[in-house]
């Protein structure tokens, strides 16, 4: 196989590949023998058709199967021979193929941009911490108390403060049920601060087993964009009217639900968790500021095919693999493109920082990180270890650790301003 390499763009190479005619013929013969084992023609049993007749009668299938199997393999060998490291699968184009002739084609190979990061010193960073006070701990305990509540059935019409357990379905403009909108086992709290007035009014006085039609007008800033600013009609069936019964916040609560010795131990755990959450938030904000400054200081163009490849992956994940029309796809591309480009530039720049600063992550360090993750939740330890058995996942973890070290290096030489932010009061919904 003859391979020549030429630059065809920023971070892109084109491989001109030629496979000699004798090798092409040998590969075609191998493919034909494979088809021969499952081929049949009048007068011949399955698998007994002479090879010459297979090549004649199944010529199109032989050529198609040959190209489907051989092209990726030949492209991979050519990329390896050229010592290139593609960031996306190579694109095969300009294929020229005729039996008895050499196979010629081009492979478009996009490689990771090699960027030299400018001075990483002097980044202006602000760490805004929110101290965890007693009020925040009390609010979280109240939330845990709410989440662990039990519900007691009531044999009377629904009143303010009750919970209505129901099934619902949306109705279209003609009053027909929209099957895809069915929801079962919804629990609606009458009198909750964030409850929509129309829904509460529509369920007031409802009784077990009753069916009602309820019209709801959603505010323009409603979280679900499909419902925001719309008036929607629902048909609901009431399963039960219930009252919420809260457990006492005491040592028994801590022992039975969280396997801790006392309520004080639970308070300490809650405070620790809130502090860790705030620390994670602070770190995320600082990393975001570093990313923005790195990109500002070090402008460069990404390979277009890399952007398209990652954008396609993001859209497929967002749509769960469903087919989308061109209009929706364009809308999704416009929505996700800025984030995809920012994420790609972040990864490339942090990898460059790590390389320039001589940062590395050893196999032993990766193993210790996996041990730490496994020990943090013994119930999931086996699953965590199994997950990282694959070399690809261990390499991905190594890259994440290396990125973190690059970020730590930048923070260490940054101009960091620490700011303590007084937390806003946490509101806990009133309960009965």
Listing every helix as H and every strand as E from the N terminus to the C terminus, the arrangement reads EEHHHEEEHEEEHEEHHHHHHHE
Report the end-to-end length measured between terminal Cα atoms: 80 Å
Number of strands: 11
Structural class: alpha+beta
Helical coverage, percent range: 40-55%
**Annotated CATH architecture of the largest domain:** Orthogonal Bundle
Q: What is the strand content? A: 15-25%
**Overall body shape:** extended
Taking Cα atoms only, what radius of gyration do you get, to the nearest Å? 32 Å
Determine the number of helices (DSSP H or I, runs of at least 4 residues): 12
Number of domains: 3
Largest sheet: 5 strands, antiparallel
List the helices and strands and how they pair.
Elements: E1 2-9, E2 12-19, H1 21-36, H2 51-57, H3 59-81, E3 91-96, E4 103-110, E5 124-129, H4 134-147, E6 150-154, E7 163-171, E8 183-189, H5 197-203, E9 211-217, E10 231-245, H6 251-258, H7 263-297, H8 304-318, H9 326-356, H10 363-376, H11 381-387, H12 391-412, E11 415-420
Parallel strand pairs: 5-11
Antiparallel strand pairs: 1-2, 2-4, 3-4, 6-10, 7-8, 7-10, 9-10
Helix pairs in contact: 1-3, 4-7, 6-7, 7-9, 8-9, 9-12, 10-11
